[in-house]
Amino acid sequence: MISGILASPGIAFGKALLLKEDEIVIDRKKISADQVDQEVERFLSGRAKASAQLETIKRKLVKRSVKKKKPSLKGILCCSKMRSWSRKS
């Protein structure tokens, strides 16, 4: 849901955000047993990159004093670091 500050109709100046939602494509291709380790490592690497990006966003929001978004990012970061998503040896 997108929300904003209600205002009277007219001309406004300021930053704008263009939201473009791409279609999510899920690759359902089967992999062989010898590819499993490689795919798990690829997943864990992607998760680490996403977590680092979220940490950067969190720092920028704190710097800008945007306090409303911080709790939701905290939850996302917590989920991205869940042990159940980690590789079990």
Determine Rg (CA atoms, Å): 19 Å
Q: Give the % helix.
A: 40-55%
* Chain-averaged pLDDT: 77
**Number of distinct beta strands:** 0
Protein name: PEP-protein phosphotransferase system enzyme I
Domain Phosphotransferase system enzyme I N-terminal: 3-69
GO molecular function: phosphoenolpyruvate-protein phosphotransferase activity
EC number: 2.7.3.9
Describe the overall structure.
This protein has a domain at 35-81. 44% of the residues lie in helices and 0% in strands. The chain is built from 2 helices and no strands. It has helices at 36-63, 70-80. Helix 1 packs antiparallel against helix 2. The chain starts with 35 loop residues before the first helix and ends in a 9-residue tail after the last helix. The mean pLDDT is 77.
Secondary structure: elements and pairs:
Layout: H1 36-63, H2 70-80
Helix pairs in contact: 1-2
Short description:
The protein has 89 residues and is mainly alpha-helical.
Index terms:
mainly alpha; PEP-protein phosphotransferase system enzyme I; transferase
